[in-house]
């Protein structure tokens, strides 16, 4: 089974880190191909970045289709372009916020999301609504760390995140923690040990959910809104997306 | 007051038609500048088209900011890129689905949306959720007409849409109709006369809502999620969006 | 265009103040007629006052209809008698809570209502439900000021309200403020400058929404619950309401 | 125990009929005083009638307080003035829609309301929302009968209502029926026998709920929104409501 | 009228206490038979206890049916086995959480539940959802007292519960209190006097609701999910439940 | 990895069938142990059966814990005893309705559940609420087949189910089908081929979700409601459940 793990930002150090974490949980026989698009933002910290990460993401889906990938993971906690990607791909596409929230709802009564910037909290709430997970989502908390601080070993990010996770458990009455940024994937084990609570990393969860759907022979239904998009002309430097 | 009316697809006949309708309702002193992006799809009929219309749309917002526009209208019923546009613009940005649903809720107990393709109905329901309008939205109905059929005088579109509107009133127990595509903007008066019900065209409604917010001195709040996005590098042919 | 701005309480100093604010935002050519009923409470601070303000309000609607008004604004944050008024009037009728909440939802991610007495907060929440605005309403906060203290220049009302608005922004994570009493209409600009956040005054917003609907040719639908009420005998000193 | 059963319309034949039905279910020792206001509409078939029934209703509450009543029932399915009445009365106040919906939720999985005019269905849905009963309310169905047709022995009302009740059970998958008009109170037994389903009459249910609350020593809480309204001047022919 | 009050745990001191409280509110002519099952847990403090209390509870329902009881009350705040009991019994079955929440919603704008252990709070929230009472339930608060501490006169339970009730009123903005454990039934009057707020005891409320339904001739509908369960073989020491 | 697949009814032909289907999707290295309890009903077709299946189910969980199982699947579409089982087990416990609904929400916009008896539809809706899946659940449809008819090769069950699935796709506008009974597990492939839509079998989905959680090192959180239940005496023939 071949899964394309797409980090929709263009920072390859983060992509590589996710690849390592993904392979650590993948089943024997699953090949993880971790990629970043050739175009787009170096990090995703706004609706603006989120929207502009999508063309590069869709390039990667199209390449994946040409290369016969079985499933895709979109590895940014805003799940950018998820529905467009589902239209384009034959196999299943999973977002990491989607995977993390679903997994968290299976092992506890309520979770807190701990993320980077406060300005993205509203989007996490919106995704909880979209996936039906609002009743399990007790809070979305920001550490006010820029995404790329997670890539900087000299930053204080580790400690700040763990402190916020501890507050989440006591103040929100949550019994599960959800990591709100793909860049936190390597902290999962450490936070779990520090807090004693189950911690869900969306990258790992999404890989396993993608494996699950492929193993079950379940693909995105093409009977409804996620049918292959009608082909049509596209103008300008997006012309390659038409046909 | 200068309002930039952005048709996010690249079909200028539709853009021009919207401009005419917008000017017909605009206040004296309001200048309507109707534009299409230089890049992107000729029509928006999928999540894929919707996502790929956003870069061109954001180009138009940026140009508008440079030229001192007071407000923006996004004239596609999926309201693509609305939140990203709000981050980028100083003045208010209104989507036509948003405007139409809000206006419809002020004049009746429940509305039906009549749109083009069935595959976009799910998105209209999602927008009703997002705007809090689910309790007023009694149904979303598709005519199974491609968007560009609305631009073809030889098509049977007019009759098909009016028939669907009649069914909406009797079968959905709705008392207001909402046109579910920017390309229907010129049919508003005709449908209202044919059915005897109030018909809300989102293009006209959004123009008036934009005027309203400007007149009230209300701009998108920059205190929360819609703050100006942090500047950062963008790679490839999207580099112009970074800075 | 003639808009009848009805302050449903009988305190004309408040009515006059609202008229001034309304005219300040009205379009050229809009005539604002600000009135109070001849009967009813001097202020509205309970469900009891709210209910008993309605007969006088409906008198004003009927007079307005006879005099050819195009639209009506009900200028009390409980929106008393809104649905009954919609049945009676040919043109649109807008409540100020309704207008303020809708406008606030267009320019931010969540608003706080700041109102006078704690005992009216439940009603504001109920209206947020009714209009579909619950998902945008982050809090309703009371200053514990009687309504008529707003008319008393010697009171400390101004400072108390601004303090509560500041707390709303920091404690509720709101990015927009909504004034929860028609009597605060003249404080809008001052609060906005003091807090740096957009502040929505329902009186001004409702005037512009009424103008919008008239400009769009949209009237309350008479196909459903808001059809003209059936005529019938009324007994006692309400006999003038029958026919 | 003394319960004041207030029919908020001024048609005493209906009031007397309700009194008979109420006494048939009341406990030994409960005195039912069935009254209509001196002022207001002869029937309630619109938001307009509903609003204008409230002053007369509040007169009856005030008289009841002076005469030492223990509890009140508002016997119109729109539950007009319920919250205002709760502010005014020391003892509990129950609306018949409220009582009927609560009782129905205790004996089945979902109910249908069968009411008179289609134009009042929206209000029944709104009340289901207000009381938390939306998840039990499967449908609200109208017979398109004027309220006073229920008082006319020559009308076909009986048969029409029973037919609609039968359709409710088969088409709505409901297992309980709720009578949507106080004027249907005397049909309860007959409909139950004709359909074989439990039928809830709000008048009877409200009497028993009022008895229950009095027996439990439970009165409307005066700590919150339902505290006694502040006294203040009222102008014109409503002056008696001030103080 | 004969009502079987079933304490689903096997601690008879608690059962007897409930019987005393129930008889204190029952109507003349109502016979209260308070029982505990022969099998099952001595207290119910987990989903595990809750589930394992149900066989004994159903034994008591079956015995009650053989002895001609008119109605049943399930006297544990988790309302264990309520739907199964409704299938089995001819007459109505009421849970004490259900009764308490409904009654509380009739006399205030929002209630707080004060219960024993924090680990049962989630279940109280779930029941509020199930009964449609979420919009009235402002908080569920735990005293962290084991259920059987309520039976120990030497414990500090009384004071701890009253303190938590006081906090509920001030911190949750509730105007009604709901006792979250059947074992608190004898504290109702004392808490009400200490706090000045209405306090709803589910045992008393359920007895009165059961009386109400019997008086109205309303039984659980057998048309839907609560029809008598199909008979079938049961294996092992549960064989007596088959037939 | 050892997963205990518990069919909570006592019909071993069904248990064996589920075991075959489970092993067909399990990963290499996963050992599936399919069992039925020694006590309880031969099929689960009511809340009564559902409740009485739980003691036997909990026996199987306890045995599983003693034997070192890593995870558990509860293979009845009512997910009986799920929360009690979570308290008891160290590893994750998944219900098949839960697994099926979550999986279906990942591959389409809306699903229909096709189940056996109409009297169980309400429970499926309740579970959709509990898991947050209401927004994806477009309908729950019954074939009015007894559960054990699925075990009878001579019955017409196959054809009836496929017909109902076809109607679900066209009438409910669903794009995914969910099998609403564990006994349908062997029909999954056939229905998918007959209808052309993705079909989710909860038994298979739950096995993969259990594998996923074990692979991710995620266990039920013991910080909240699902903590190990407090030990205490149990009376009568349930004494083995105490300790």
Automatic annotation (TrEMBL), chains A, B, C, D, E, F:
It is an enzyme of class 5 (isomerase). This is Hydantoin racemase. It comes from Pigmentiphaga aceris. Signal peptide: none annotated. GO terms for molecular function: amino-acid racemase activity; hydantoin racemase activity. Its EC number is 5.1.99.5. InterPro entries: Asp/Glu/hydantoin_racemase, Hydantoin_racemase-like, Iso_Racemase_Enz_sf. Pfam families: Asp_Glu_race. It catalyses: a D-5-monosubstituted hydantoin = a L-5-monosubstituted hydantoin; D-5-benzylhydantoin = L-5-benzylhydantoin; D-5-isobutylhydantoin = L-5-isobutylhydantoin. Belongs to the HyuE racemase family.
């Amino acid at each position: 089974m071949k899964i394309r793990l797409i980090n929709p930002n263009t920072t390859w150090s983060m992509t590589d880190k996710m690849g390592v974490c993904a392979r650590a949980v993948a089943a024997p026989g699953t090949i993880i191909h971790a990629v970043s698009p050739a175009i787009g933002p170096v990090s995703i910290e706004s609706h603006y970045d989120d929207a502009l990460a999508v063309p590069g993401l869709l390039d990667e889906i199209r390449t994946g289709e040409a290369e016969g990938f079985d499933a895709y993971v979109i590895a940014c906690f805003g799940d950018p372009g998820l529905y467009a990607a589902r239209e384009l791909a034959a196999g299943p596409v999973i977002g990491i916020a989607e995977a993390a929230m679903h997994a968290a709802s299976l092992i506890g009564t309520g979770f807190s999301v701990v993320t980077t910037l406060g300005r993205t909290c509203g989007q996490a709430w919106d995704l909880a609504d979209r996936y039906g997970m609002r009743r399990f989502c007790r809070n979305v908390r920001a550490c006010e760390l820029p995404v790329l601080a997670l890539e900087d070993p000299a930053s204080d990010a580790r400690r700040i995140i763990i402190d916020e996770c501890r507050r989440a458990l006591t103040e929100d009455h949550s019994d599960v923690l959800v990591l709100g940024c793909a860049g936190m994937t390597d902290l999962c084990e450490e936070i779990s040990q520090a807090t004693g609570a189950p911690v869900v990393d969306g990258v790992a969860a999404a890989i396993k959910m993608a494996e699950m759907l492929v193993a079950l022979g379940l693909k995105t239904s093409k009977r409804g809104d996620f049918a292959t998009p009608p082909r049509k002309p596209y103008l300008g430097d997006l012309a390659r997306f038409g046909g």
